[in-house]
Design brief:
single chain, Glutaredoxin, alpha+beta
Protein backbone atom coordinates (compact mmCIF):
# COMPACT_ATOMS: atom_id res chain seq x y z
CA UNK A 1 0.00 0.00 0.00
CA UNK A 2 1.46 3.41 -0.96
CA UNK A 3 2.56 5.69 1.84
CA UNK A 4 0.92 9.02 1.20
CA UNK A 5 0.65 12.22 3.19
CA UNK A 6 -0.92 11.72 6.57
CA UNK A 7 -1.39 13.68 9.73
CA UNK A 8 -0.51 10.49 11.65
CA UNK A 9 3.20 10.75 10.93
CA UNK A 10 5.94 12.74 9.28
CA UNK A 11 5.88 13.23 5.55
CA UNK A 12 9.20 12.16 4.08
CA UNK A 13 9.46 14.86 1.41
CA UNK A 14 7.52 17.50 -0.44
CA UNK A 15 7.24 17.67 -4.20
CA UNK A 16 6.89 20.65 -6.53
CA UNK A 17 5.68 19.90 -10.04
CA UNK A 18 6.04 22.56 -12.69
CA UNK A 19 2.89 23.03 -14.75
CA UNK A 20 2.48 26.05 -16.98
CA UNK A 21 3.67 27.04 -20.42
CA UNK A 22 5.64 23.87 -21.29
CA UNK A 23 5.58 21.46 -18.38
CA UNK A 24 2.24 19.72 -18.16
CA UNK A 25 1.11 20.95 -21.54
CA UNK A 26 0.45 19.36 -24.89
CA UNK A 27 3.94 20.53 -25.90
CA UNK A 28 5.19 17.51 -23.96
CA UNK A 29 3.39 14.66 -25.68
CA UNK A 30 2.75 11.13 -24.53
CA UNK A 31 2.55 12.00 -20.83
CA UNK A 32 -0.54 11.66 -18.67
CA UNK A 33 0.21 14.82 -16.70
CA UNK A 34 -2.68 14.42 -14.27
CA UNK A 35 -1.68 10.83 -13.53
CA UNK A 36 1.92 11.91 -12.94
CA UNK A 37 0.80 14.33 -10.24
CA UNK A 38 -1.59 11.77 -8.75
CA UNK A 39 1.16 9.13 -8.64
CA UNK A 40 3.61 11.44 -6.86
CA UNK A 41 0.84 12.51 -4.46
CA UNK A 42 0.58 8.87 -3.36
CA UNK A 43 4.06 9.29 -1.83
CA UNK A 44 4.20 12.90 -0.61
CA UNK A 45 2.34 16.21 -0.74
CA UNK A 46 2.54 17.77 -4.19
CA UNK A 47 2.37 21.48 -4.93
CA UNK A 48 1.74 22.53 -8.51
CA UNK A 49 3.78 25.57 -9.44
CA UNK A 50 3.60 28.02 -12.27
CA UNK A 51 6.51 28.07 -14.69
CA UNK A 52 9.85 27.47 -12.96
CA UNK A 53 11.64 28.96 -15.98
CA UNK A 54 13.52 25.85 -17.06
CA UNK A 55 11.30 25.03 -20.03
CA UNK A 56 14.08 23.18 -21.83
CA UNK A 57 13.79 20.53 -19.07
CA UNK A 58 9.99 20.01 -19.25
CA UNK A 59 8.49 18.18 -17.32
CA UNK A 60 10.24 19.37 -14.16
CA UNK A 61 9.82 17.80 -10.73
CA UNK A 62 11.53 19.09 -7.59
CA UNK A 63 11.85 16.84 -4.54
CA UNK A 64 12.37 18.81 -1.34
CA UNK A 65 13.88 17.01 1.64
CA UNK A 66 12.03 16.19 4.81
CA UNK A 67 13.17 17.86 8.02
CA UNK A 68 15.22 14.72 8.72
CA UNK A 69 16.76 14.91 5.27
CA UNK A 70 17.51 18.61 5.57
CA UNK A 71 19.16 18.04 8.96
CA UNK A 72 21.35 15.41 7.29
CA UNK A 73 22.41 17.92 4.60
CA UNK A 74 19.83 17.07 1.95
CA UNK A 75 18.86 19.78 -0.50
CA UNK A 76 16.12 20.06 -3.09
CA UNK A 77 16.72 17.77 -6.06
CA UNK A 78 15.62 18.95 -9.49
CA UNK A 79 14.66 16.48 -12.21
CA UNK A 80 13.92 17.33 -15.80
CA UNK A 81 12.58 15.48 -18.80
CA UNK A 82 10.42 13.32 -16.53
CA UNK A 83 8.28 12.36 -19.48
CA UNK A 84 7.50 8.70 -19.03
CA UNK A 85 5.98 6.42 -16.44
CA UNK A 86 9.32 4.78 -15.62
CA UNK A 87 10.99 8.09 -14.72
CA UNK A 88 8.01 9.07 -12.58
CA UNK A 89 8.24 5.71 -10.80
CA UNK A 90 11.96 6.22 -10.11
CA UNK A 91 11.16 9.57 -8.49
CA UNK A 92 8.28 8.04 -6.50
CA UNK A 93 10.48 5.16 -5.28
CA UNK A 94 13.19 7.57 -4.13
CA UNK A 95 10.60 9.65 -2.25
CA UNK A 96 9.30 6.46 -0.62
CA UNK A 97 12.87 5.55 0.41
CA UNK A 98 13.29 8.94 2.11
CA UNK A 99 14.54 11.27 -0.63
CA UNK A 100 17.27 13.91 -0.31
CA UNK A 101 19.56 13.52 2.69
CA UNK A 102 18.01 10.19 3.69
CA UNK A 103 18.34 7.85 0.72
CA UNK A 104 20.96 7.75 -2.01
CA UNK A 105 19.60 9.01 -5.31
CA UNK A 106 19.12 6.05 -7.65
CA UNK A 107 21.49 5.87 -10.60
CA UNK A 108 18.40 5.65 -12.80
CA UNK A 109 17.65 9.31 -11.98
CA UNK A 110 21.12 10.66 -12.84
CA UNK A 111 20.13 11.44 -16.44
CA UNK A 112 17.18 13.47 -15.16
CA UNK A 113 18.99 15.45 -12.42
CA UNK A 114 20.07 19.00 -13.16
CA UNK A 115 21.18 22.11 -11.30
CA UNK A 116 18.63 24.87 -11.90
CA UNK A 117 19.64 28.46 -12.50
CA UNK A 118 19.22 30.78 -9.52
CA UNK A 119 16.13 32.40 -11.04
CA UNK A 120 14.39 29.01 -11.18
CA UNK A 121 15.17 28.27 -7.52
CA UNK A 122 13.79 31.69 -6.60
CA UNK A 123 10.60 31.04 -8.60
CA UNK A 124 10.08 27.74 -6.79
CA UNK A 125 10.47 29.44 -3.42
CA UNK A 126 7.91 32.08 -4.39
CA UNK A 127 5.72 29.21 -5.56
CA UNK A 128 2.20 29.07 -6.68
CA UNK A 129 -0.47 26.53 -6.32
Amino acid sequence: MPRGPSSAGPVPCRVVVCRDCCCGSTKVTGVDHARQIARLAEEAPVRVSDCLDVCDQANVIVVQPSSEGRAAGGRAAWFGLVNDTAATEYVAAWIRAGGPGVADRPDLLENHAFAPPRRARSEMLRGAG
